[in-house]
Write a structure and sequence with these properties.
The structure holds 2 protein chains of 2 kinds.
Chain A: E1 4-7, E2 10-13, E3 19-25, E4 31-37, E5 43-51, E6 54-57, E7 65-66, E8 76-78, E9 87-94, E10 100-101, E11 105-109
Parallel strand pairs in A: 2-11
Antiparallel strand pairs in A: 1-3, 3-8, 4-5, 4-9, 5-6, 7-8, 9-10, 9-11
Chain B: E1 3-5, E2 10-14, E3 19-21, E4 24-26, E5 32-38, E6 44-50, E7 56-58, E8 64-68, E9 73-78, E10 87-94, E11 101-102, E12 106-111
The chains are: A mainly beta, B mainly beta.
Chain lengths: 110, 112
């Protein structure tokens, strides 16, 4: 059983609000990732980190930002939410091989 | 550019029938290969993985996958589908444990 947690599971928020999606893992993995998943199912990598104080943009451009101050914690922040940010956000972590995923956060911006 | 392709967006199969999901990859060298399953509203669960060695890989829930280098493919199979197998299935690849590249996914519907 993978130990990676995302909160909240569901979030409905108004346009212009600042939000932070939390992701934590207890496996000591160096690598962590954020994926955005559209209603049509495809996953797009938006951020990744290979360790503390390391963050990189992913393949899909995103207005969100991330930080990696602690190994176990990889939060994602949107400074000003917009309806176009409505999506599911999946966090994952890995050490050497396969990635383990959290349950996801479904974000709706109204 | 590295890519993973799942040609089938939707597949409908009768319960008890066999299932095969296709996956093709485009990488400079043979990547690590994975199949994940996602139930509605959930995260992704790893079904199986291939790094090297035996080209037929066994996974959880009765799934298996076969790696074919000549076809750049890693197809997923199950001999007899159960209603609980209805889900989205994602093929993914990575180079030496780096970030995963996912295919577009295949939605499997199971008819009673």
């Amino acid at each position: 059983e993978a130990d990676i947690y995302q909160t909240p599971r569901y979030l409905v928020i108004g346009t212009g609000k600042k939000i932070t999606l939390e992701c934590s893992q207890t496996m000591g993995h160096d690598k962590m990732y954020w994926y955005q998943q559209d209603p049509g199912m495809e996953l797009h990598l938006i951020h990744y980190s290979y360790g503390v104080n390391s963050t990189e943009k992913g393949d899909l451009s995103s207005e969100s930002t991330v930080s990696r101050i602690r190994t176990e914690h990889f939060p994602l922040t949107l400074e000003s939410a917009r309806p176009s940010h409505t999506s599911q956000y999946l966090c994952a972590s890995s050490r050497l091989t396969e990635a383990f995923f959290g349950q996801g956060t479904r974000l709706t911006v109204v | 550019a590295q890519s993973v392709t799942q040609p089938d967006i939707h597949i409908t199969v009768s319960e008890g029938a066999s299932l095969e999901l296709r996956c093709n990859y485009s990488y400079g060298a043979t990547p690590y290969l994975f199949w994940y399953v996602q139930s509605p509203g959930q995260g992704l669960q790893l079904l199986l993985k291939y790094f090297s060695g035996d080209t037929l890989v066994q996974g959880i829930k009765g799934f298996e996958a076969e790696f074919k280098r000549s076809q750049s493919s890693f197809n997923l199979r199950k001999p007899s589908v159960h209603w609980s197998d209805a889900a989205e299935y994602f093929c993914a690849a990575s180079s030496a444990g780096n970030k995963l590249t996912f295919g577009g996914g295949t939605r499997v519907l199971v008819k009673p």
